[in-house]
Amino acid sequence: MALKGYIEGYYGRLLTWDQRSLILRKLNELNMDFYIYGPKEDIYHRIKWFEQYKDKELANFENFNENCETNGISFYYAISPGLSYGDDPKSNFNLLTSKISNFLDRGLKNFAIFLDDLENEKDEKLGELHANLIHEFSNYLEKNHGTSFVFCPTIYCERFAKKGIENSGYLKVLSERVPNSVSVMWTGREVISKEITSNDVSKFKSVLNNPVIIWDNYYANDYCQNKFFVGPYRGREFSKDIIKGCGLNATGMPITDSIILSQFKGESTTEEIFQEFEVPPEFIEIFHFFDGPFEFNSSLETIKKLKNVQNIFQKICVDWKSELQLEWAPFLWQFFKDLHFLENYSKMKKEKVLKEWAGQRYSEPLLNILLKGKKLRIIILFLV
To answer: End of a domain among 239, 274, 309?
Structure first.
């Protein structure tokens, strides 16, 4: 059976240890398997990967790892050295192992190296650099009683292999040098894949035949920060025995991510999950706008069918008070602001009035796009 877990690997948010503990409790409740720590906003994870954590923070990692072990969850510390590792590989490898030794001394045994989101040319030369790093680090962990090692390559989805993954020099070099015991992360055809099938995984494994952990960005919203998604987990039809595991890289909002993990588990309906987290019933009226990244309901007719919009706004933006509401509030207020704009837009208010209203609420680039759209619509209506 494939492992399931949580990846703290997004941009824009950095959880507190209390928030991580909340997610850990949900992982335990759902009988999931792992937590991978790799937030882009931790300066010592990526930008200053070569610098040591302070003793106090190392103690936090040690305590969280112990809590994970108590709850039957494997905790992975991920480091992302790719931005500067190639400047001096020999010296940088020594910096890397010096840093990891502090974690090993504190009882951590599972590690990951993230080599994602690099601007380098994804060619054989980069492949050799990364393959040597992974090979040497794997040997280092084996000698120092590390238990499990995962890495994310720079080509982590099919789209990044310009000539196709079967013709990727970068992946070919990795396949020749990376030990078979090392698990590799893969997001599918795209960074955010609409579907991931057994054929997709088999195609990747035909090039790099290591155990695969799906890094699933289905619910991620660091690329679309005016939206979040809490609908059913869709479009994943891969055989459980073709992958080692699947982890969700979610939002960095801990209660929202707990909802998402419940959807990922797939044993409860959306209504049951919302009831568990005390989501107001009025949210159901607009839920389809927050369903999933590929579920669009953008037509004016769909929006016109909404009844008692002011009442929905009052119930979920003003009257509802909870920790979850605080996570959702910026998105919900933005949604109703957009509805208001659309209402004004559709009623063809004078451009000066609309510009004044929208100018207080939207960024200058978006405002220009919106108002140009209105001018275009006026011209089309006039011509018709």
So the answer is: 274
Among candidate residues 163, 141, 159, the one with its CA nearest the CA of residue 150: 141
Range of the domain at 264: 3-274
Structure tokens at 106: 């504190």
Same domain? For 195 and 334 the reply is no
Q: Are 271 and 29 in contact (CB under 8 A)?
A: no
- CA quadruple 184, 190, 195, 200: dihedral positive or negative? negative
Q: DSSP state, 272?
A: H
Distances (CA, A) of 300 to 87, 303, 304, 376: 53, 5, 6, 17
Co-location of 51 and 26 in the same domain: yes
Q: Flag whether 56 is in a domain.
A: yes
Based on the fold, state whether residues 230 and 346 are members of the same structural domain.
no
User: Which CATH number fits the domain that encloses residue 80?
Assistant: 3.20.20.80
Residue 330's contacts (CB-CB under 8 Å, 6 or more residues apart) are none
pTM exceeds 0.70: yes
CA 29 – CA 241 distance, rounded (Å): 24
User: What are the tens digits of pLDDT across the range 134-165?
Assistant: 999 999 999 998 889 999 999 999 999 999 99
Q: How many domains does the chain have?
A: 2
Q: Are residues 219 and 255 in the same domain?
A: yes
pLDDT band at 345 (very low <50, low <70, confident <90, very high): low
Answer whether 33's CB lies under 8 Å from 245's CB: yes
Indicate the pairing of strand 183-186 with strand 148-152.
Answer: parallel
Residues 6+ apart with CB under 8 A from 264: 4, 233, 248
Strands (E), 71-155: 74-79, 110-114, 148-152
Examine residue 280 and state whether it is found in any structural domain, yes or no.
no
Beta bridge partners of 8: 37
Distance CA 344, CA 329 (A): 23
Residues 250 and 323 in one domain: no
Higher-pLDDT residue of 340, 110: 110
d(CA 75, CA 67) in angstroms, rounded, equals: 9
Q: Do the beta carbons of residue 81 and residue 50 sit within 8 Å?
A: yes
Do 93 and 199 lie in one domain? The reply is yes
Note whether residue 284 is domain-resident. Answer: no
> What distance in Å separates the CA atoms of residue 299 and residue 245, rounded to the nearest whole number?
38
User: How far out from the chain centre does Cα 148 lie?
Assistant: 22
